[in-house]
Amino acid sequence: MKEGKVIGFYKMRKVFFAISSAIMIIGIIFCVFKGVVFDIQFTGGALLSYSYDGEMDDDRAGDIAEEILGRPVTPQLTESISEGTKKLVLNIAGKYGVDPIDQAKLDEALKAEFPNSDLKLSEAQMVEKFFGDKFMKKGITALLLSTVLVLFYVWIRFKMMGGLSAGVMAIVALLHDCLVVFFTCVIFGLPIGDNFVAVALSIIGYSINDTIVIYDRIRENAKLYSGYEVETITDLSITQSMMRSVMTNLCVMISVSLVYILAFANSIESVQSFALPMAVGSISGCYSTICISGPLWVMWKKKKGDNILFVETKEDKNKKNTTAKKYYY
Length: 329
Prior knowledge:
Layout: H1 13-33, H2 40-43, E1 45-52, H3 58-69, E2 73-79, E3 86-93, H4 100-113, E4 120-127, H5 129-157, H6 163-187, H7 194-224, H8 230-265, H9 269-303, E5 310-312, H10 314-320, E6 325-327
Antiparallel strand pairs: 1-3, 1-4, 2-3, 5-6
């Protein structure tokens, strides 16, 4: 096999698995101690955004809102660097929106507390709990349906190389990527909402595309190098496809990172909550495709005793005088 230097991804699998395990542990720790913030689109509630000038005490504003509304309120201060505008955002939890009378009381109380801030209500979002539950169910359904369809596609498309095992390992890699995106939102305090669903679906598309490219290369190399071990064929295939995956995801990451920088400069929170996890997810998708799905699939095959992908049999040689191959999948 003269294919240049082949990287031993399978031999380094423990290092890759340790890195992924560390990421999962860190993410779980943040979930426990920092908590998960769900967007009002999932939980129901209200989001009030006020523009202001000068200085603002967000904690005091949150306390005033909690006293008047009798509900948990999470305050946040944002600033647009390009426009120089400042905003006070109040995320009001609950199963319903804010009553117009209560909102008027809140406006008056905030203006009385901060008379020199020129507070003005610039945006208000109200979501009932019923619609939040409905949106969450549809989002989860979309993620599960896409995962099942990916499994069936890989199962049928690569049935000659153990379609079920290939599909399951591809799903494991996708689950890894979705968790990385989820933990990114938790660590950076981004609310879990429609943007999370959009990012997860996008990452699933990119990641499974790269995984299928590697599976195709494994199938082609198994025919070219009959009799080689599954570990050798897989390492060769990943090495040959690695630069394609890296360059594709690198371009995505750079593009989305620029979008995030512009959104951050202009204080566009809805774009920030999409661009940041998308940038991290593109890196995770590349990593899981190269370092997770392939080695896991090799472990599956070795455990089943299918260490050799293609083997020439004496019976085939005697009957057909060819180099017919026998599949061991």
